[in-house]
Amino acid sequence: MNIQFCRLSHIKIADIIALNTNDRVLKQMPLADGTQFDEQQCIAWVKGKEKQWQEHGYGPWAFLVNDKFAGWGGLQYEDGDADLALVLHPQYWGLGKQIFNEIIKRAFNEMGFESVTILLPPTRKNLKGVYLLGFELEGEVILSGERFIKYRLYKPSI
Q: Which Gene3D superfamilies match (predicted)?
């Protein structure tokens, strides 16, 4: 299985819309407000994600599995932190750990981050995997009016 990272601007808008409006995916995305996510909104959304690269030198990628769009994620600037996002089409959910490992490798080895964060909704009850990955509970934050629990993963000391 070949997994590649590329910029979201290289992905067909229809493919991004299909992912970001998938009912199973939306259940994991509390900031998705359930309103129409059409072509115009998707283009603006992609531009916003690309702007992260321009302003901060990092941002989300698109993930390709065997040259097919599987999802998006990576590091996004969030209140001074590199916040990790990982949104995969349900048929690729089994690849989350492998993609996560590549994001973390790039974050700590290539980009030089000392830590990354994740923000999870309080409804997320199964946190065993979060702690097994090494994340530590940091506290609560409010983002766009929604409450999240913030976890931090520190760069391993060698």
A: 3.40.630.30
